[in-house]
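User: I've been trying to design a sequence by hand for this structure and keep getting stuck. Would you show me what you'd pick, starting by listing the structure so we're on the same page?

Assistant: Good idea, let's start from the same input. This is the structure you sent:
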């Protein structure tokens, strides 16, 4: 294995994937066409076959594999498949890379065990063919190096003068495009349990900034694991709390109440499903912000499968749920990366702008 071969582990299956090989498997086959067929709408294997993409059974096989990797998920009511956020991010990252080089070029670059290493080595400075032996124990043979250098020069990615080879500006652009793609794919693989639940409209998230993020997933044996992880983020140093929740979870709401009783400034947004449930269960007091001077609450007219917890502007917990209004099988991403935190703050603020306040709507309006 070469030094460029990033290995990512898919937590859904514990499968270890070489990122370069995963990219090659997508672009050097009909798999990319199957992903593209889902770009705009849910489709069945038969519908994909009808488009002339691949045979129905082949489409079924590819979709099953994509689902194992969190890129697609079945839609029972339509007997078809749709992209997850991870699938949409993967497709968008591939299309962005393919704006720089075409499928055949990307396939050639990722098919070879050594092509990316040689191009990366050229990016460190001008070099002669024999100097590639310094790349280490996995260094390519002299004939492999020469073959790759010839290919790069034919593509305009490198040039030679007096036996010395150097990367061109075009070659550097290609290398940068590949590295961006590889970083995105790596995070899609490693954050699969969260991204498979996240709505695909959230594919604008800064996926490459997720490298240091932690994903916590609930299970039938530990249903409260995610909520506990979120509560553990509360520390004595933070001075403001903001939350968007789409599930009613008593321990979580009790924790919110404790924060308010401590006088901690904050905001909260509940979606329509939680708003309705609070009224049905006689828990409207959770929607009353008049007792707390530094607390505001709002509610949305839509139902979500998303939760956001913001701890000042330095920590974030983003939950994604399997179904609207339910806490079954929650996956939560926890991050202190400022790029991720800023993305979550922006998303939260967009929902806050849409939210109704206490004076705008009454419980009677909902029940009516």
């Amino acid at each position: 294995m070469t030094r460029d071969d990033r290995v990512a582990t898919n937590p859904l299956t514990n499968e270890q994937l070489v990122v370069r090989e995963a990219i090659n498997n997508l672009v050097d086959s009909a798999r990319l066409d199957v992903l593209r067929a889902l770009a705009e709408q849910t489709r069945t294997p038969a519908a994909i076959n009808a488009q002339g993409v691949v045979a129905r059974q082949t489409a079924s096989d590819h979709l099953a594999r994509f689902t194992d990797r969190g890129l697609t998920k079945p839609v029972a009511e339509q007997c078809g498949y749709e992209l997850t956020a991870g699938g949409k991010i993967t497709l968008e990252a591939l299309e962005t890379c393919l704006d720089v080089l075409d499928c055949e070029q990307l396939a050639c670059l990722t098919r070879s065990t050594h092509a990316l290493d040689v191009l990366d080595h050229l990016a460190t400075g001008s070099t002669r063919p024999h100097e590639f032996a310094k790349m280490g124990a996995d260094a390519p043979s002299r004939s492999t190096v020469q073959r790759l250098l010839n290919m790069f020069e034919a593509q305009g990615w490198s040039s030679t003068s007096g036996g010395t080879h150097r990367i061109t500006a075009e070659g550097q652009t290609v290398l940068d495009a590949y590295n961006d793609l590889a970083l995105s794919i790596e995070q899609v693989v490693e954050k699969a349990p969260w991204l498979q639940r996240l709505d695909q409209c959230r594919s604008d998230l800064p996926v490459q900034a997720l490298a240091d993020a932690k994903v916590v997933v609930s299970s039938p044996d530990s249903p409260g694991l995610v909520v506990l992880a979120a509560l553990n983020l509360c520390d004595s140093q933070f001075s403001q709390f903001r939350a968007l929740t789409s599930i009613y979870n008593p321990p979580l709401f009790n924790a919110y109440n404790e924060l308010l009783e401590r006088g901690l400034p904050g905001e909260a947004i509940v979606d329509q499903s939680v708003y309705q449930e609070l009224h049905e269960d006689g828990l409207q007091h959770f929607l009353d912000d008049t007792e707390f001077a530094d607390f505001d609450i709002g509610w949305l007219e839509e139902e979500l499968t998303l939760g956001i917890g913001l701890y000042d502007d330095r920590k974030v917990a983003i939950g994604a749920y399997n179904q609207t209004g339910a806490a079954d099988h929650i996956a939560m991403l926890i991050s202190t990366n400022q790029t991720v935190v800023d993305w979550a703050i922006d998303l939260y603020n967009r929902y806050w702008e849409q939210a109704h306040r206490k004076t705008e709507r009454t419980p009677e309006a909902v029940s009516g």
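That's my pick for every position. To get oriented when you compare it with your attempt: Residues 1-200 form a domain with the Arc Repressor Mutant, subunit A fold (CATH 1.10.10.10). The radius of gyration is 25 Å.
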